[in-house]
Design goal:
heterodimer, B: alpha/beta, Rossmann fold
Amino acid sequence: MTPLKPVSRGAKVALGIAFFVLFLAAWAIATFGGFVSKTFLADPLTMAESGWRLLTVHGFLKDIGITVWRVVGGFLIAAAIGVPLGILMGAYKPIEAFFEPFVSFARYLPASAFIPLLILWAGIGEAQKLMVIFIGSFFQIVLMVAISVGATRRDLVEAAYTLGASAGGIVRRVLLPSSAPDIAETLRLVLGWAWTYVIVAELIGASSGIGHMITDSQALLDTGQIIFGIVVIGVIGLVSDYLFKTLNQRLFPWSLA
Amino acid sequence: MSKLAIEGVSRTFPGVRGGPPTRALEPTALTVEDNDFICILGPSGCGKSTLLRIVAGLDSPTAGRVLLDGAPVAGPGPDRGMVFQSYTLFPWLTVRENICFGLREKGVTKSEQDRIAAHYIERVGLQGFEGHYPKMLSGGMQQRTALARALANDPKILLLDEPFGALDNQTRALMQELLLGIWEADRKTVLFVTHDIDEAIFMANRVAVMTARPGRIKSDVRIGLPHPRHYTVKTTPEFSDYKARLTEEIRAESIKAAAMAA
């Protein structure tokens, strides 16, 4: 192997699938071979069977839909406020000086620790779930967007000034397009994190959603269902990540080689 | 009245971490007449780029002032077009969109933008590359686009900060001929910073030699080579005489600069 040498598309896909196959094989050997007790870890077939039952008998699709709605809803609210604020902070240093210390502090507050407080304030309805996602994503988005915008190449800004750009023109026609691919990448990352917050939010005080199904299954010692729920989250994450990546490549062809 | 007047401009940079301040530029005076092509020639670190940045309005002088058509320069503006040494095309815009950047900012209509862009694309020989992104272009093509972008704004004066410094020798020679050809046709006023003696003599009608840091203008040499200049002018005895003279002046400054660095 040569460092940094690219692989062909076919080899890339084959290698990626190979790991999933190996992973599944190791799991099958551990469970079917009797190395791990069924109580702690269901085998792949039991999981598939539990999954099928969940989907056909217990209406799990509805849970999946609700969880996706919560993640996307909370994430969109956070992005709709966080991206503009981050852009303002990156572009205008007094605004950054005003918000940055608080945002840096708030970023370290664990969203899950707010759940008891949020239940007290907003009950156990949808508003509370959205607020958990919001708290978990908002401060990250603000800070990362501000950094991307602030890192715009100074020589490009200077070139724009010598071409007659106004302050507003610098923001709209240099800072924004220059940091747009980074902002899109930030949103892709934070959406991934939002998925971990939604499950935590659903483990406590929820009556629907993937996380709620997982807590219920724990009470029944049904590890097959728990693993199926986790796998579903993984698959949704993989798909949304792929969509995001494809969209970014379409929107910003200039940032690629 | 001179096109551009630099009057007693000096620049001192504050010391880093309590260190002594750095004097980059001694009080400097230079006047540029309409249609002049002036090269500012100096060893590296002599403050020649600082001087050009002050003219562009990207840096402020510690003392003194710069007048363009009699009006003091307060900040950067489209009346002073600039080509930088580093590649500063906007990577998210195509060649044509880069050239139209200043026109769009001015509010020029779309059809007029396209007409002007097409004109300058032809002038710098980039036909067929209008829709390319900067990443797909060679260094020489990027700098030609940057030149077209600055010219499209029709500035009163064109400022160039070692624009061909990062190019290989052959490309650099071609770029010099291209710029000289444009100047001979349009007689746009040009202020060109370089450390390359041949480049300065070949293109300029005046060469201002700067001293080692802190920089000031040591001598002002008129280059009497006739226009239009062909690249073969570089092998004439007159060219060699100018070169011998400027080499002597620059050498003394380079030795001083090297001694300071040691």
